[in-house]
Amino acid sequence: MLPLLSCCAGVYLGLRFNILALLPFSILGAGAYISSSWSAGQSLSDSAIVLLLPMISIQAGYMVGLTARGAYGQLLERLNIRQSKQV
After folding, report:
1. Which of 23, 40, 56, 62 could make an S-S bridge to 10, C-beta 3.0–4.6 Å?
2. Residue 11 to residues 14, 28, 49, 54, 69, Cα–Cα distance (Å)
């Protein structure tokens, strides 16, 4: 479930933000996960291994979001029906 959620978050970040947005979100998410698992009593190496798949997933989702920007923009233009200003 976590890789799917992180992939969806990566797609959202890819559609909405530039490249520098991925790094802070990745670092904050990794830090939060490692600190919560460390406080629960897991070792640091176990937490780092479990964290690899969501980190790869968020980057893959980000790349999908970047490549879908053009199609997403065209879809928004088609759905945003306005009156023409032509006479």
Report:
1. 62
2. 5, 17, 23, 13, 10
At 63-82, the pLDDT tens digits run: 888 888 888 878 878 887 55
SS3 41: coil
Alpha-carbon torsion 60, 61, 65, 67, what sign? positive
Name the token pair of 73.
Answer: 């923009």
Give which of 52, 86, 68, 77 is closest to 13, Cα–Cα: 68
CA distance 43 to 34: 9
The domains of the chain are located at 2-79
CA–CA separation, 8 vs 14, rounded Å? 10
Six-digit token pair at 35? 């600190």
Q: How is residue 48 written in tokens? A: 């780092």
